[in-house]
Design brief:
Layout: H1 2-8, E1 13-14, H2 31-46, H3 55-69, H4 78-84, H5 91-96, H6 101-124, E2 136-138, H7 150-175, H8 183-207, H9 210-222, E3 230-232, H10 234-245, E4 247-250, E5 253-258, E6 261-267, H11 272-276, E7 284-290, E8 297-298, H12 304-311, E9 318-324, E10 330-336, E11 338-341, E12 348-354, E13 357-363, H13 379-392, E14 398-401, E15 408-409, H14 410-417, E16 424-431, E17 437-441, E18 452-456, H15 463-473, E19 478-481, E20 490-496, E21 511-520, E22 536-537, H16 575-587, H17 590-607, E23 610-612, H18 615-630, H19 633-636, E24 644-645, H20 650-656, H21 658-672, H22 675-700
Parallel strand pairs: 1-15, 13-14, 14-18, 18-19, 19-22
Antiparallel strand pairs: 2-23, 3-21, 4-11, 5-6, 6-7, 7-8, 7-9, 9-10, 12-13, 12-24, 16-17, 16-21, 20-21
Helix pairs in contact: 3-9, 7-8, 13-14, 14-15, 16-22, 20-21
């Protein structure tokens, strides 16, 4: 589970790289061996802290890979594990020889066991569960034993499926009012729901190819080095590029596959399909045809990734979709492809008034950049533009919201730091065996020199931590948020593996992201593991949950280097008094106390591993939990007296684009209920007041 966070969390600080550091030839005709050769070379020669690939490494990889392919121990028997055990200390030798024999054995056995499991769970769900039976289900899979026999495996499935179905059954019984179905009928319906969910999961697994499972094995190897070293299969690299740049070329629709049907789940605002206004959410895609081809390709039952490849294409071309419309009719629709911008990726701003003063808020989801065109739109230029717009509205203080911002481009964060200081170092970077490099802002202009608050939480990582740390070290901003940020203090390079191969005949080999540097605050400390400590600490729902870098597998250690040459800014704001006032407000807040209680309760709930499978006891537990949960309902009802408004340039857009308007309205409503944002505005107000007092005293003297 810990490893999966690194897949979904965009917490990478990227310095785009080529493979110019090697003249080694890679030309093995076997694609598996070639891929292993490329990966092991980059790990051994390029990683910041290369590991000895020895027996200890082999054992770690062995456990990690098995835990990833069968995390709930639903497939493999103890006899399988006994057979796999002979490889436990031999995987290092296989890696060095670019051999994937262990993977092949596990992969083939896994497919067999998955197929067997379908018969098992179908049989289990064919029989009613006895909810009067006194038994429990344990979700501590890490300490669970593998099944020794088919009967034990079936009983394992029975308990797990009973637990899943019990939740469905309880909901049905609780909600049953009008149809007057019997408990027997509801029990059947609950099992049918569980079976449907399992069949959908099976459909997803069926879509996985051998190369997908091999990618998982390669990543198990990579993540033994550190949590942020990762192999991107070709389709994953495309997704990563879209995430980092915030754009891609296509029709602007999000798709979902359920069983054999691929349907439209969302039209991206501003995209060509949205502008055309003919494609609808819920439409099912039956066939895809390119404008220069006569034959359409049937996509019913096709892997979602393969269907997406057919639909995406270069800007300016058209794709023809055969659709089963929501009303049941079938029609062909030609849709132009265009460059689609994912608006939720980009910086956005709003303005709020408090006690006659106007304050600005900029939300930054990530430090985005287009690596293919570094002169195009990026986070630093966008934030600069938003600051200019806010200043035009009379902004007297700024909140930069970096909560849940997992990072991004190193260049972008250095440029952004320069918006708030005249010049000076922003971050220090060190490679193995080399002198540190100090990355500086050399532009003496300052975009915003007024009161500044940075909001963070436990998921603010990487580039977010660099910016927060630099502003904190300069005493340029007050950081409000979690006890510490994520704690990722490493830099990754991405290498296109295809560029390392001469005369490649194996198709697209993907890309590899690996840790090549560590970065340090300008005061010399590392954010690795320790993150950035907030000036004003406020609890949130993550406060007691293990989600930081220190909770991942194989993180690099914390260390420190000599500080850079910088000076703390001479401020006319009273930071110390403002911070203390904020702490006093937070310590006396009944809502903050309740948030902390809620966080502790969430931690208790997450730590629970044993659940009753008796309906009566399960219902009692649910009732107790619901009673406890009601204590915290007041938090969702919390309302500040602040009103957030869009800037003038957005108002015409909101009238033209209903989706954009809904998204902005929802954001403003959430901000008006946000106790952390409320405190950030309070701090800006205090800073503004302290600034005025200083100015008055200077004039008086």
């Amino acid at each position: 589970m810990k490893r999966n966070i690194n897949i979904f969390l965009v917490s990478i600080l990227i310095a785009f790289a080529s493979c110019s550091f090697t003249s080694k030839s890679f030309d093995d005709p076997d694609k598996d061996k070639l891929l292993m050769q490329l990966i092991t070379y980059l790990l051994e020669e390029g990683h910041f802290e290369p590991k000895d690939i020895n027996d200890a490494f082999s054992e770690g990889l062995y456990m990690s890979f098995l835990n990833q392919v069968d995390p709930f121990k639903n497939y493999f028997y103890q006899s399988d594990i006994n057979e796999f055990e002979s490889y436990k200390t031999d995987l290092d030798n296989q890696i060095l020889n670019h051999d994937v024999s262990f993977f092949n054995l596990v992969y083939k056995r896994l497919l067999t066991r998955i197929e067997e499991s379908r018969k098992v769970y179908s049989q289990v769900l064919d029989t009613p569960f006895d909810y009067d039976l006194e038994e429990t289900f344990n979700t501590d899979y890490e300490n669970k034993s593998y099944a020794a026999s088919k009967s034990e495996m079936k009983d394992n499935w029975r308990k797990q499926l009973k637990f899943s179905t019990l939740s469905n059954y309880h909901d049905l019984v609780t909600d049953e009012k009008e149809t007057k179905k019997s408990n027997t009928e509801l029990e059947v319906e609950a099992r049918e729901t569980t079976l449907k969910s399992l069949n959908e999961t099976a459909s997803y697994i069926d879509d996985l190819r051998r190369e997908d499972w091999l990618s998982m094995y390669i990543n198990a190897i990579a993540e033994e080095f550190d949590p942020h070293t990762f192999y991107f299969a070709p389709k994953d690299k495309d997704r990563f590029d879209a995430q980092m740049s915030g754009k891609y070329e296509g029709i602007g629709a999000r798709l979902q596959k359920r069983m054999d049907e691929i349907s439209i789940t969302e039209l991206i605002s501003g995209g060509s399909a949205w502008r055309q206004n003919k494609l609808e959410v819920g439409d099912i895609i039956l066939k895809v045809r390119q404008e220069d081809e006569l034959e359409a390709v049937n996509v019913v039952g096709m892997r979602l990734d393969d269907a997406v490849k057919l639909i995406k294409g270069p800007k300016g071309t058209n794709v023809i979709l055969t659709l089963k419309k929501v009303d049941g009719t079938v029609e062909d629709l030609s849709i132009p492809r265009d460059e689609i911008e994912l608006e939720e990726t980009y910086a956005k701003s709003t303005i709020v008034e408090k006690e006659g003063a106007k304050f600005g808020v900029i939300n930054l989801p990530k430090f985005y950049i287009d690596f293919e065109d570094i002169n195009s739109r990026n986070a630093a230029t966008d934030v600069k533009k938003e600051i200019e717009r806010l200043k035009a509205e009379g902004m007297q203080g700024l909140v930069l919201d970096l909560r849940n911002n997992g990072g991004g481009s190193l260049k972008t964060v250095v440029d952004m730091g320069g918006l708030f200081i005249d010049e000076g170092p922003i971050v220090q970077v060190r490679s193995t065996g080399e002198d540190k490099e100090v990355l500086k802002d050399t532009d003496r202009s300052i975009e915003w020199d007024g009161p500044l608050v940075i909001l963070v939480n436990e998921l603010s990582a990487s580039a977010s931590e660099i910016l927060a740390a630099a502003m904190q070290d300069y005493k340029r901003a007050i950081v409000i948020g979690s006890k510490q940020t994520y704690g990722k203090g490493t830099v990754q390079n991405i290498v296109d593996l295809n560029r390392m191969i001469r005369s490649n005949t194996n198709g697209d080999m993907g890309a590899f992201k690996f840790t090549t540097q560590k970065y340090y605050r300008i005061n010399g400390g590392s954010t690795q593991l320790e993150g950035v400590k907030s000036d004003v600490v406020v609890p949130d729902r993550y406060s007691y949950i293990d989600i930081g870098e220190k909770d991942q597998d194989n993180p690099l250690e914390w260390d420190e280097i000599a500080p850079a040459n910088y000076k703390v800014l001479e401020s006319t704001f009273d930071y110390e008094t403002t911070i203390q006032n904020s702490k006093n407000r937070m310590n006396s807040s009944s809502e903050i106390k309740l948030i902390d209680d809620n966080a502790r309760w969430i931690k208790t709930m997450r730590d629970q591993s044993v659940y009753p499978l008796n309906f009566s006891k399960y219902s009692q537990d649910i009732e107790l939990n619901e009673t406890e949960a009601k204590r915290y309902d007041v938090l969702s009802e919390y309302q500040t007296d602040l009103t957030f408004e869009s800037l003038p340039y957005e108002r015409p857009l909101m009238e033209q684009d209903s989706v954009f308007k809904i998204n902005r309205t929802r954001w403003h409503e959430n901000l008006s209920k946000d106790i952390y944002m409320e405190e950030a505005i309070n701090v800006l107000s205090d800073l503004k007041s302290s600034y005025k007092i200083d100015k008055l005293s200077q004039v008086k003297d």
